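As a warm-up, study this chain.
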Amino acid sequence: MIQNIKKTWYYFKRNGLAAAVAKASEQISQQSSERGYQVWLAKHLPTPEQLKIQRQYKFTNPITFSIIVPTYRTNPVFLRQMVDSVLDQTYPQLELCIADGSPDDSVSDILKEYRDSRIRYQRLAENKGISGNTNAAFAMANGDYIALLDHDDILTPDALYEMAAAVEADPTIDMLYSDEDKVSADLKQYFNPHFKPDFNPELLRTNNYICHFLVVKKDLAACAGHFRPEYDGAQDYDFIFRCSEQARNIYHIPKILYHWRSHIDSTAANPQSKLYAYEAGKRALESHLQRMQKQNNSGKPSDQNKSKDINLKTEVSHTSHLGFYRVQYIPLSGSHTEQCYMHIRDAKSLKPQIRTEIQQELTANCMRPEVGIVGGKTLYPDGRVFQAGLRRTKEGTYEPEFQGLKKRYSGYMHRADLQRCADSVSFDCFAVKRELLKQLGISPQDLKTQEDINRLCGKIKAAGYLVIFTPYACIRMKHSGMIHDEMEHI
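Now compare it with the structure written out below.
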């Protein structure tokens, strides 16, 4: 309760009363919806019988995981629980690589209690910081894949089994991640589950949604360049960017495999405890964007069908939510509006400034080499969300995301307010490359309904381009069209 009050107070100071009230209301609503999570978790964790089957399963091509853990004066209880969760894995092909920067014997004394050859321990001459200590642990690794684990967190017993099973089913996978949740310091309460989407490069540019449990092929991690001390606090974010830029196949396991311990000094419980981390995250994102700009300008053989001559600059800024960012794409020369077909319902009725801002947002994103189509956000007259992108269901239909979300609410993990890849975008507010339409044999006059846009988005994704939702091109609707005098641009 005290932590929530502090968070709301900090949010109020940054964003004002109305936004703080909405945030507090949404948090209460979210906490209410999560009351049954522990029951849900108990039903979805593997049973003892299933764990027994996993232990007995013989993999055709077993791989070895090197679990990388940097330590520094780790709480003895937390340390033992972390080690126990690793040694209790149903998949036995592992090594636990611990690099310890502690100035005393507190960690080494506890590890001496374990007589397991899979534990590899190194006492560092000095504390090198989170990145330096992690790199020291990485240098000890002999496995095929490395896995990142914080010194006070917990793995579910099937975590490595699920990773190994995924790699055996598809050996091209070289980067994997799972869903996660948070757990109280005493391990009695599990809460705040993070159910993640499959790899979404655009969402990754707004926050480190991948986070835990991350597993990366050792060769890929070495090629990416390990961890960089200048990004301490967001070293994982920087590392994930560099790995994802070179990965062949990134796979998401939609299961809770990682429990992130929440205590007063952790960012899990108190985002204000590491404000420097958010600045480091911003710099990591900026560095990623610079590398991708150079790559786009040089051109890769696999992307020869995509335009490379669009000169864009990027600006990264913090959003109202700590640890979340906005990337703004800005053409450096000329007007590129003629290169894309744009549709904004009743655009002539919009205030000139709002219309210009929406057009610029759609155009700049549309002209990115990797993007095929971009769509905006639409609201009901009362400010509730009509759609924030569309998702494709298992039945093949398309559903608006976050439909009915209250005014000023940001949605699950703030995703109604985040730019991200979507399955489809709104017919009422979109821009698509004209050249791409020509390649697909589609005329702008063929785009008359939402169903037409849905089919187009499917073809665009199949052609290897991104379908992007942006909340920064936002229109408010009425039953038969737009509200002409009350537009909202977020």
